Amino acid sequence: MQKQAKMIELEQPPITETAVLVRMAHPSDSDEEIDESLEEMRQLLWTAGAEVACTFLQRRDKPCPGTLVGSGKVDEIKAACEELDADLAVFDSDLTPTQGSKLEKLLGLKVVDRTQLILDIFAQRAHTNEGKHQVELAQLQYAMPRLTGRGVEMTQLGGGIGTRGPGEQKLEMDRRVIRKRIDRLRGELDSIRNTRRVQRKKRTESSTATIALVGYTNAGKSSLLNALCGSHAFVENKLFATLDPTSRRCMLPSQREIVLTDTVGFIRKLPHSLVAAFRATLEEVVEADLILVVSDASHPAVDDHTRAVYDVLHEIEAAEKPTIKVYNKVDIADPDRVSALLRNNGRSVAVSAKTGEGLEALLAEIDHQLAPTRSRVTLRIPQSMAGVVSRVRECGRVLSQSYEGNEIILDAEIDRSFENQVLKYIA
Ligand SMILES: Nc1nc2c(ncn2[C@@H]2O[C@H](COP(=O)(O)OP(=O)(O)OP(=O)(O)O)[C@@H](O)[C@H]2O)c(=O)[nH]1
Ligand SMILES: [Mg+2]
Question: What is the CATH number of domain 207-370?
Answer without folding.
Answer: 3.40.50.300
